[in-house]
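Quick check before the chapter quiz. The format below is the same one you will see on the exam, so make sure you can read both the input and the output lines.
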Amino acid sequence: MTNSTQTAATAQTAPTAARTAPTAARTAPTSTTHTHAAATPTPTVPRLNFAQAAPKAFKALIGFDAAARDGLDPALVELIQIRASVVNGCAYCVHMHVSDARKAGEDELRLHMIGVWREARHFFTEKEQAALALTESVTLVAQGGVPDDVYAEAARHFDEAELARVLALIFTINTWNRIALSTAKVAGEDERAAH
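Here is the expected output.
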């Protein structure tokens, strides 16, 4: 067994307490630590077009996404979508939402810092930081749930209705990421205009 294989095996069998450490002690994955997408070869099996194959589900998700965004700051919407997409390793969605953020006038430096926002907090408001932390916890929910401190910090910055929409937005971007990854969407292409 190689050292990298041993390290991976050790990480998978680590005690539960180590995997559910408080958020402040955890380091969320960044684009440089997420290796699944980079290690996955280009698919050779043709993938379906989800929008065409499941139009009712696709339309329902578009409606859910629109309802989630309603009343939220557009800049915050893009930050959440970019961060979840980076964590999930979804290049298609990262490209799409970085492009959208640029078109909306987002500062280029902030776009570069989203993947390392914990080390670059001064680029983001406390409210944005709370949303990014919540985004990571919900996206990585299987790795320790949503800790009380992360939820409480988000609830401090968002009223109940707004927090519900932030959560809904996190749910939708995670679903979009899974659709794009499962159907092998190519970064740089934007199929929204076709729908």
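If your answer matched, good. Confidence is low (pLDDT under 50) at residues 1-38.
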